[in-house]
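Exercise 7b. Backbone tokens:
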């Protein structure tokens, strides 16, 4: 590895920390919608695979911690992964413990990162000898993954029913483009569909504004009021051992380790289930119970995401987890740079994986730890006052439309619009991102199986 490549990796890591520190403080941003487009842009720009991986790992470490801070400070969820922390964070905020909550989140995030990375590489090493047989059954595994994620979701029956119609939609649009001569027969269209899924819920919300009755029903004439405690603006102790109890530390490490082998499952579901399990028998002191919960859940948000990326990427090269099929999708499939037959799994050796992940994770977790403990309130104040939420969402929407045009011209903009409307509606009805992304990757196999039945 050359010095120039190391410098590029460090620059990518620091860039991810700066970018996602501010994005993470914006309430309501979804992890997939802000991670996937930027990662895809870096891939398409021709960045070396080590740089891409270091950037992505740094981005998820930074974003997952920073997303929890608006929840603790102002009671607004930063993203999907911060949703399990809402109840406990709001309770602690009501007790005037918002600053303490952020410190515990920072320590939990560090524990989850440190525990998950070596375990993920160890599990990837155990799984690697089985890569051949697993890849031979890729279509079945991806379809089974979609079914499994559907069974773990909110609306199980609808999620199961929607898999085949979504698969047909994902295959029908490229077939239409080929038949109409919009794109050559050898060209594939998938990444803009991937981004169409990510923007779906937001697109539905925007389209609802065109409905006069729904628009009139929305709140008018006021701003959301938030309160920041003065204690959050003061300097704080940085030593982790003084920020969490021994019990909170051990529970965080244990649950992070337990979640790593379950990498194929939903990270949100695992965070909620294992986080609540850690406090199931702790009912005497509600404050201590909530403090342990936010610490453990912060560890889980990192361990589930890191395991969901590292294990499929290192061992298999195919997206078989919710994270790898969702936010990390461009690492596996980003035509024309990466495909399921030629991605980071094929381009990097194990030492390069370890170096890129370690550099990306450790540098970002150290920086974000200090930021969270020392300056979270100041950054929250700046973001809430100076960075319009709508501007960030508009930027990502414009980027997705641009990629849709690059993929297959103007017709594909409307194709992505169709996918966004369908998937956004299903998302609202309880069909989560994991099911939709896994169905996108499983679509060729599902449609081929349906054709064989006819």
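Sequence design result:
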């Amino acid at each position: 590895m050359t010095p120039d490549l190391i410098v590029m990796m460090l620059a990518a890591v620091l860039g991810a920390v700066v970018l996602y520190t501010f994005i993470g403080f914006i309430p309501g941003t979804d992890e997939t919608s802000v991670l996937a487009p930027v990662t895809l842009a870096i891939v398409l720009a021709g960045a070396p695979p080590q740089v891409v991986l270091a950037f992505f790992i740094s981005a998820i470490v930074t974003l997952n911690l920073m997303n929890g801070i608006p929840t603790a400070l102002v009671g607004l969820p930063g993203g999907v992964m911060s949703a399990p922390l809402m109840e406990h964070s709001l309770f602690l905020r009501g007790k005037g413990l918002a600053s303490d909550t952020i410190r515990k989140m920072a320590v939990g995030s560090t524990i989850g990162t440190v525990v998950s990375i070596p375990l993920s590489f160890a599990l990837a090493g155990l799984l690697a000898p089985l890569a051949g047989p697993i890849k031979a059954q890729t279509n079945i595994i991806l379809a089974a993954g979609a079914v499994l994620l559907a069974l773990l979701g909110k609306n199980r029956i609808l999620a199961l029913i929607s898999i085949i119609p979504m698969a047909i939609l994902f295959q029908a649009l490229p077939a239409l483009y080929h038949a109409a001569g919009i794109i050559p027969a050898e060209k594939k269209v998938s990444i803009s569909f991937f981004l169409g899924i990510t923007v779906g819920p937001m697109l539905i919300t925007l389209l609802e504004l065109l409905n006069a009755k729904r628009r009139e029903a929305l709140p008018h004439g006021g701003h959301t009021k938030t309160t920041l405690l003065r204690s959050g603006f003061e300097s704080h102790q940085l030593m982790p051992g003084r920020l969490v109890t021994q019990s909170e530390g051990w529970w965080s490490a244990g649950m992070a380790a337990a979640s790593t082998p379950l990498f194929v499952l939903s990270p949100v579901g695992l965070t909620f289930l294992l986080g609540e399990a850690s406090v199931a028998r702790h009912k005497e002191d509600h404050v201590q119970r909530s403090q342990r919960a936010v610490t453990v859940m912060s560890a889980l948000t990192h361990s589930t995401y890191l395991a969901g990326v590292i294990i499929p990427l290192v061992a298999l090269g195919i997206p078989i987890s919710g994270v790898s099929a969702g936010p990390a999708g461009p690492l596996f499939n980003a035509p024309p740079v990466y495909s399921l037959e030629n991605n980071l799994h094929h381009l990097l050796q194990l030492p390069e994986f370890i170096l890129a992940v370690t550099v990306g994770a450790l540098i970002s977790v150290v920086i974000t730890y200090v930021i969270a403990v020392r300056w979270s309130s100041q950054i929250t104040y700046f973001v809430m006052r100076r960075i319009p939420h709508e501007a960030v969402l508009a930027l990502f929407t414009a980027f997705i439309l641009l990629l849709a045009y690059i993929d297959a011209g103007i017709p594909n903009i409307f194709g992505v619009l169709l996918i966004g409307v369908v998937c956004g509606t299903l998302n609202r009805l309880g069909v989560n991102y994991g099911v939709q992304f896994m169905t996108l990757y499983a679509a060729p196999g599902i449609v081929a199986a349906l054709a064989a039945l006819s």
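Instructor comment: Residues 27 and 78 are 4 Å apart (CA to CA). The mean pLDDT is 83.
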